[in-house]
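[User] At your convenience, examine this fold.
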Amino acid sequence: MKILAIDTATEACSAALYVDGEITSEYKLAPREHTQLILPMVDRLLTDAGLVVNQLDALSFARGPGAFTGVRIAAGIIQGLSYAAEIPVLPVSTLAAIAAGVYYQHGHKDVLSAIDARMGEVYWGAYHVEEDSIVLVDNELVCSVDNLPDQALKSWVGAGTGWSEYSESLKSRFNLDNDSIYENYLPSAETIVKLAVQDFKLNKQMSAHQAQPVYLRDNVAKKKANQ
């Protein structure tokens, strides 16, 4: 199995290539440089592996939520590659990628993912993670901290930039201490490709046309689209 994944949805820019159980990746924290960085990252990974795009089994990308422009960059690149090479796509939630990354690195199974959405709001998702699956406990949403849904008592940890921007409010709301928070944790293509491999095995592939970005804040997306 060969899958390429990219992520440009947050401040980080990354690409990862899965080839028969081995993962190579590139990652750089570089706000506003994603358009300059992501395609060279992809080219280096494929060249080093001796592959071209049409030899891949699937493509994957961070489908959002996140920065509007960043989400569109990744979606556009993957859709273009998918159309050209006629291979399927596996979109992955950025919030799910944050939760899975915390599990892979630190072993926490119950993760409250939050990305700073500006305007006093967070992109939010509660997840339970196992070795071969990640379960969304409630719907992903965007809202103010005060309006977040309550969660059943578990050994939750918090992760993502939302926990940095709204630290005190979120800690108080969910009764977490500093040791239970990974406040600047960002998604990565390495985690995304791992989730894509799981989805591929479950036959969740889709066409480029079906692989749409997810903004959650629909009014902002529609406003941008009309400009």
Remarks:
- The CA atoms of residues 119 and 151 lie 24 Å apart.
- Confidence is low (pLDDT under 50) at residues 219-227.
- The chain has two domains: 2-93+187-225, 95-182.
- The first helix runs from residue 34 to 49.
